[in-house]
């Protein structure tokens, strides 16, 4: 979008928050860059230039605006609605892959050469993987400076910098303030709880939290997830350790409290929480498309801004989808809770009732199949899935190719279209995944006068593309039955 100068100028002049994260405005006279909704008086059009990423602005020598804080914009919805190389690379960078494994590790995960990845990222985002990762490190550093009392040296290494000097230079370059000056600008009323980070997760309005948090609470696995005091809480398995996230819906943000065993996991924890809550979606584009169907239009108008509840761990969700085949939500939670108690790693939760991390594929692969209280066919499905996840034969991650992975899942014993598509929708993040065989969808379709047979409903849903996963949320909301995972 940043190449459409006229459209970008209109967005800046109208301070349209819908475009925050889509592009960034760099002001040639002041050498700062802003989000489109920056509250200051817009500069003259001839003094504006536009970039597709904060990293590109920084590489061009612009500093972040101290008023609108463009580094805290919602992420671009492009990376969650596309499955091409650039989108998959951006999801991996947000998940901290470059900091942990370097650019060669990023390339290896994607199956491309480092030169191909750098060339495509530069062409589309104006910055390579190292610059994009640097911008993310700067934002992590700012969060730690403003939300903790940690010494600057600890913050530097927790944010992923290799030296104190690099940390200081980067913070000054990006924010035009030293780390100490950033900390001094923190509101005096800020309350710091040792070991806990409190931050705000922005989103594009509107956001309807009912289906989002309602679904997560209704399917919560005891010990791993809970709904407590108006917040959805769950444990997180992270690259360097573990954590607990507490997420509370507010009118203009999601209040997030993170307790981490290793602060190097902060950017990954934030990225996974945002992804689980689908906070980088563009609800206006989604709802406008679905409103073109006269049957869906009243549902959208009644409760706009529905999101797709996703997951913080793709392998965990796949296991839970299998446990939920052919049984009710309550039974699926019971099966999962037994595995958690027996094979999950214990965690301490002074603020609530969380007790374990969900078991890893490696620990589940060692389970004696005879101890699983499920039919033989589903037992085979379960053991095959966890064995392939454990040995790497099957990989589910933010970088997964949606079409290829769905085909791989369908080749496993006991995997039908419903299981593969619900994993594609909620674990892989495919915004166009559709569940025409789902009992709740078929009942809602029948009630609304839509075709209720899978083939006919799929044909009708072609008009909802590429947002069929969001149409599923609106259809599910019309059905009063408890969530049931019936099809395979």
Helix-strand makeup class: alpha+beta
- Indicate the low-confidence ranges by residue numbers: 481-487
Q: Report, as a whole number of angstroms, the end-to-end distance.
A: 40 Å
For the secondary structure, the number of strands is: 11
**How much helix, percentage-wise, in residues?**
40-55%
Overall, the morphology is globular
Q: Radius of gyration in whole Å, from Cα?
A: 23 Å
Instruction: Describe the strand arrangement of the main beta sheet, using strand numbers.
Output: 5-9-8-7-6
Bin the strand percentage.
5-15%
The main sheet comes to: 5 strands, antiparallel
Mean pLDDT: 92
- How many DSSP helices? 23
Topology:
Elements: H1 5-13, E1 24-27, E2 32-34, E3 48-51, H2 54-59, E4 63-64, H3 78-81, H4 85-94, H5 97-110, H6 114-125, H7 129-147, H8 152-158, H9 164-175, H10 179-184, E5 196-201, H11 209-218, E6 225-228, E7 231-237, E8 242-249, E9 254-260, H12 266-276, H13 283-290, H14 297-302, H15 314-323, E10 327-328, H16 329-343, H17 361-365, H18 376-391, H19 402-410, H20 417-428, H21 439-448, H22 454-460, H23 468-476, E11 484-485
Parallel strand pairs: 2-4
Antiparallel strand pairs: 1-2, 1-3, 5-9, 6-7, 7-8, 8-9, 10-11
Structure description:
By secondary structure, the protein is α+β, with helices and mostly antiparallel strands. Helices cover 47% and strands 10% of the residues. It has 23 helices and 11 strands. It has helices at 5-13, 54-59, 78-81, 85-94, 97-110, 114-125, 129-147, 152-158, 164-175, 179-184, 209-218, 266-276, 283-290, 297-302, 314-323, 329-343, 361-365, 376-391, 402-410, 417-428, 439-448, 454-460, 468-476; strands at 24-27, 32-34, 48-51, 63-64, 196-201, 225-228, 231-237, 242-249, 254-260, 327-328, 484-485. A 5-stranded antiparallel beta sheet has the order 5-9-8-7-6. The protein has a 4-stranded mixed beta sheet with strand order 3-1-2-4. Helix 4 runs parallel beside helix 7, helix 15 runs antiparallel to helix 20 and helix 19 (402-410) runs antiparallel to helix 20 (417-428). The longest helix is centred in the N-terminal third of the chain and has 19 residues, at 129-147. The radius of gyration is 23 Å and the shape is globular. The protein starts with a helix and ends with a strand. Residues 481-487 have low confidence and may be disordered.
